[in-house]
Here is the input.
Amino acid sequence: MESSIYKSEVFDMACRQFDIAAELIEMDPNLVERTKYPKRCMAVSCPVRMDNGDVGLFEGYRVQHHLSMGPTKGGVRFHPNVTLGEVAALSMWMSWKCAITGLPYGGAKGGVCVDAMRLSRNELEGLSRRYMQEMIPFIGPSTDIMAPDMGTNEQVMAWMMDTYANQVGNAVPAIVTGKPVSLGGSEGRREATGHGVAYLVHSYLEDLGFSLGESTAVIQGFGNVGSEAAVALESFGIKVTGISDYYGGFTNPKGLDIGDALNYSREHGSLQGWRGGDPISNEEILTLDCTVLIPAALERVIDENNAPHLKCKILAEAANGPTNILADEILKENDEIEIIPDIFCNSGGVIVSYFEWVQDLQSLYWTRDEVLNKMYVILDRAKNEIEKQKKALNCSRREAALALGIRKVANAKAVRGLFP
Here is the structure.
């Protein structure tokens, strides 16, 4: 079977990764397509009253990859380049991510094709509420739970939660995660993905015998994940020598002032115009000499053209799908670069989203330290399983992680059987 619904470069990439892993574990042919392709997808039109009185029409999507192990879970992104194929690929990666970390979820993802930066607060609220309203027949705290992603945040989740609550007649905090703590959000959720990335970088640096105080990190993408990773890396004594956002980046071999960069970015909405380092492009920043390179922005930024020129020792994939298939083949031949693959590296966010969901269902809440320490335990356990799989299959760490996650989902489908 070849899907005509999800056809896109990023979906093809996710399918190719799946095929490689499925072959490694010699998956039952009757389970291959059932495990690979999404269970269902929704495409909706979202009309919104704009500030000038006109009605804007935005196209939105939601893909639920599988429900074999529990409800689906995944973010909603507002971005001008969102496509159904991209959303489907992201839902697949979320499925493997949840399985690797032992969470009782299938993967999901949603998105609206819009430049959220061009919307006023009133327009953003209207779009957030309308998207949620259109999705209500297909979601629920035991069916599909949404979360923030690129272009969305705590406030968007609050509007979505309120929209759902008005529909069902009572507050349902567990319908979304990544919401404000005052509405049932979890302590530590905002920084979870970035801190998880930094924690794994710290762990692998120690495994490989690198001194933390002499290590440097370069981060492409200074949004929530990249900035929180930078803060956590600094707390571990690792020097951050390069950062960038949509408008470009800055570098300083002696180290950047991350606190000042954060304050500037929050005040001005981006790093554009910051004076804290030497300017550098988003393409050039990927090939800076560093111990750790962290792509924390968009998919497929590392390709066959720049992969041979990476000068890092660890590639920590904080973004989803930042390395394309051809680049991955090149990097597999490079014994000097260790990869922490995306479906493991950035899993801290969904782990703490799971904690938030559990806390909401129980109406019992934990402290930030409790949340992050619980996350670290799960990351350590998943890391050990991936390294064992890597050794057993004699494959790359990415292939080991994919094989581990895919096998767990396939086993669940096999045990449940095929409903007539």
Observations:
- The first helix runs from residue 9 to 24.
- The domain at 190-340 is CATH 3.40.50.720 (Rossmann fold).
- The chain has a mean pLDDT of 96.
